[in-house]
Amino acid sequence: MPGVTGTMTYDVSNRLKGAAGETYGYGADNRRVWRKTAGGIASLAGMLV
Questions:
Q1: Rounded distance, CA 6 to CA 47, Å?
Q2: Going by C-beta distance under 8 Å and a sequence separation of 6 or more, which residues neighbour residue 13?
Q3: Distance CA 37, CA 28 (A)
């Protein structure tokens, strides 16, 4: 991630779990479905039903 300083963490499937104070979650299809910022604001992304 360009411009990110600090530690980036990955899960066993090599998906980005966190960077720059943000945390990410993934769905069963390995697409990122949510993000939580350092300020505690969570957002959903790409949720198609």
A1: 29
A2: 30
A3: 22
Cα–Cα nearest to 1, from 47, 49, 35? 35
- CA gap 2, 40 in Å, rounded: 23
> DSSP assignment of the chain, as one string?
-TT--S-EEE-TT--EEEETTEEEEE-TTS-EEEEE-TTS-EEE-S---
pLDDT in tens, 16-34: 999 888 999 998 888 888 9
Give the residue carrying structure tokens 């910022």: 37
Average pLDDT over the chain reads 83
